[in-house]
Amino acid sequence: MNYNIKFNKFYKNFNILSSVLIIISILFLIFKGLNFGVDFKGGTLIEIRTTNENIDISKLRKSFRSLNLGDVTVKKFGNNKDFIVKFDKKNTNNPTFINDIKTKLEKKLTYSVDFRRVENVGPKVSSELLQSGIIAICLSLAAMLIYIWVRFEWQFSLGAIIALFHDVIITLGIFSLFSFEINLSIVAAILTIVGYSMNDTVVIFDRVRENLKKYSDIKIFELTNISINETLSRTLITSVTTLLALFSIYFFGGQILKGFSLAMILGVFFGTYSSIYIANPILVFLKVSQRTILKDDSN
Amino acid sequence: MLYFSKIKIISVVILSILLSYFASSNFFKFDDKYFSKNINLGLDLQGGSYLLLEVDNKPVIIETLQNKVIELKKYFKDKKIILRNISLENNLISFMVDQNQLETTIEHLDKDESIINPYYQQFKTHQFNIETLKNKINLSISNYGLVKIKNSSLDQALEIVRRRVDEIGTNEPNILKRGNDRILVELPGLKDPGRIKSLLGKTANLTFRFVTENSEETFGTEKVSFEDGSEQLIISKRIVISGDNLVDAQPRMDTQMNETIVSFTLDRVGAKKFAKATTTGVGKRLAIVLDEKIISAPNVREPIVGGNGQISGGFTFQSATDLALLLRSGALPAPLNIIEERTVGPDLGQDSINAGIFSLFIGFFLVIFYMFYKYKIFGLIANATLIINLFLLIGILTLLEATLTLPGIAGIILTVGMAVDANVLIFERIREETKLEKNPIIAFDSGYTKSRTTILDANITTLIAATILFFMGSGPVKGFSITLGIGILSTLFSVYFIARLLTSLYVTKNKHKEKLI
Question: Which of A285, B96, B103, B415 is the most exposed place for a label (fewest CB within 10 A)?
Fold first, then answer.
């Protein structure tokens, strides 16, 4: 299919929009922060399935509060029988800690519950996990920067990396806004987003470079638009197939993968958008021309 | 790009069939000695417990320092050097020597082949760092000295943990070192890790020591309380025998007293020592101390010479079994703390598998229908490639006996979504080329050639992300990076060998048709 959409007419408007979104996201990240799960904050998480179909969540919450576990949060998890309970208190090496909670809880509720999943992370481990998560994200950004630098010219590298930051920051900003939980799988999602967004940008950049060689008389402002249109069909098809896969994980893959697939869906959306509206305007801004790549070839 | 030699075709077909065979061996039981490999299911899918234990090295370090003080005294006494005001505080050994002996003392401590301050020839650093203030010498453990202590206590602890876990008899436990002071224990299928946790939480340091009335013992005395906290006794610090002397321990039922006991057998040295002590100590009370708590303190009624004995202390059958197990497997060199625990019940694991596979099928069919709708015949080629790609991916995972986790399944589904990208890039490029070139074979060929660098670039970026995740991620997330990374490789293979082969067959057969794609 042939597209001829004037993407470049909206470069300015969307750049302003993106800048605003980034600033809002950063403000959210600074002032509201992220809702870290037990992986990164430490504490205890229990997934409970009750045998009672019509359990009242406030009763469950009240029962937990009376166990002196500190700040307890109880949330529904998928259906009416499943709940996620989180509290800060860590198992202080008492082997019967979890069993004690179960016995006391069943006594209070007068029917049996099943602890389907228990996660207990000490403060040292959680801070290490957080640290290695941050390092992993920074490392992947750095690796992408270097790779693109080697394959293209620095202007392209800069454009791609700013697009990546844009995607990561806005995805995290949305997680902060809605207080979605950040756990280990979200870090995996962010790394995959980095890979995907890069993938998308590289495809367009490859075409920009090819066109730069082909047409010496077309300005970069027009040239990026031609390149985006030429690759648009591929961009759309791949985004659709990836989103089809992700939506099927989101809706059918179970509760545990919900956060992961949501982060990925957001990432694919912003990754596709940023390849067009962040990475390309930066090439225009940096006045990339045929000379930029020819200079490189003569080396 | 469209030409394939016969050898290439045959090897591609053979490789695909072989990997598909591996893949299907997960679902059907083959009676095959050589190829019976399976994908391992992660703890989040099969259910089980994951424990991360940290060795608390503080007591070991203090013990090493205390021994060093004794060693130093003895060593320099032999060399006729007097150490004065020797003290041990804040992990620092300090003492003073006469001014005229200072130089020789330091030489003893600082020479390369020093016996009292070793490791130099091995690590180019001594066990202790030396610091002098006039005639005062301070010794502190060097980094290598610390590493050495940590490594040896970790090795010992690992061995003991392995014995204890094996004794309980869970199926296929996985016990590994992590760093220089941690042990990872994975227990598949275990629903309640309570018992293992209580067994691993005990150091199990057993000693037999006499109860004394006078606190003027030569070895010194200490106050120790009973396990239930009911009573305190003054007992000697002199150890009659310790857990090291035990060769066996078993729970028994004492029919006379009608209670559960733990009977033990001593080694030769232990039996001798025990016989001697119980002969001289008839009438005295002998305290059985486990981890600084008295289990019981019976009166010695008669000498025990056979090397067999028994411990009673109001045990239930369970607690007697556990104590016997702990004594058999030996004492930990240092206490272990559980710093991370994750347990997944088997039914949740099964639910996750079902949900994962269901969503894989949904995602797969959605992508297949979409590709057919977009590209018709070539959509079919892309879809056939996708199916073979899935077999290849699962086949490689099986061959590597990789661990499949829930995020790993997500990685496979994501691969399904992203794998078609390479084919889309090629098909789109071919469409562009057919506008410029009338000969379909040339158009297809240049479509493949011109899209190659883009496809490589695009896939390498994702591969970089997957590699970093593999090295930085832990547990289930690592499983995601494995499927994502191998998915990229199998995608590239299937696109360039299988899809290209099918395309070339189709194009050469239909080269006179108008508008192939």
Answer: B103
